[in-house]
Structures are given as structure tokens and as C-alpha cells.
Amino acid sequence: MKLWTSIIFILSNFIALAIGAYLMGDGVPAEWYQSLNKAPWTPPGWVFGAAWTFIMVCFGVFMGIAWHNVTSRKNLLLLYIIHWILNVAWNPIFFDQHWVLFGLVEIVCLWALMIYFILNYQQKMKWATALVYPYVIWLTIATSLNAYIYAWN
Prior knowledge:
Layout: H1 2-23, H2 31-34, H3 45-67, H4 73-96, H5 100-125, H6 133-152
């Protein structure tokens, strides 16, 4: 049962990534993005795909475990939906609309939400909250990349 719940959350996470990618317009290859002054620590493109794949699997497993361990599934689902919307929204905000500052604010909100997941569920979920750590680490890096672009362009 927990396995199927995790699979549903993993699939939902990948749907969010696919929608975000679809809504990002020309994205990384676009002249706008290519012309930006990017942070020296910007990883190569393949790292983004590998990181997001790992993160979405970890977070899906976390959500599957949480679904069967929390007392309020309604609150968990609400937080997940907010996460899902924020995850989808960043790509079109940043890449399609070129709203770098709004993208920065948005990604900080997503980062804060992931911190909340850890702090709110750590006591109940124990070791399973470690599955959210890769998400927080990656969002910290992504936030620094977004902030650099905002500051230097």
C-alpha cells in the first residue's frame, strides 16, 4: 500500500516537472538565458535533470510514507499542492516571462516550504524527513543561481 502511494506521488512530481518544462518557453537554449551573466558555480545542464529526477523520487517516497503516518492527510495534501504549484510555476516565471526577481521570491517560498516539511514532520517521521534534504540542498543551490542572475544582470 505504501509503495503505491509513493508511486502516485512520484508520478505527480514528474507531471509537475513536465508541465513546468512545457511552460518554460524556449528555456535554457533561448537567447535571453544564454546572454545572462550566470554564476560561476552554475552546473552543466545534465546535472539539473539528474538532480530533479533524484529529488522527485526522494520526495515522492517521503510523501508516500507521510501519507500513512500523519494524523492530518488534509494538511499534508494542502502542503503538497502548494509545493506542486510552486514547483510548476518557477519555470514559466523565470524562463518564459523573464521575471527574475519574482522567480527568486517564488523559489525562496518553495525552499521555505521544504524546510517546513522537515521541521513539521521530523518528530513524527524521524529518518524519513532525510528524504527531503536533497530537495532543500538543491533549492539552496538553485536559489543562489537565481539570486546571482538577479544581482548581476
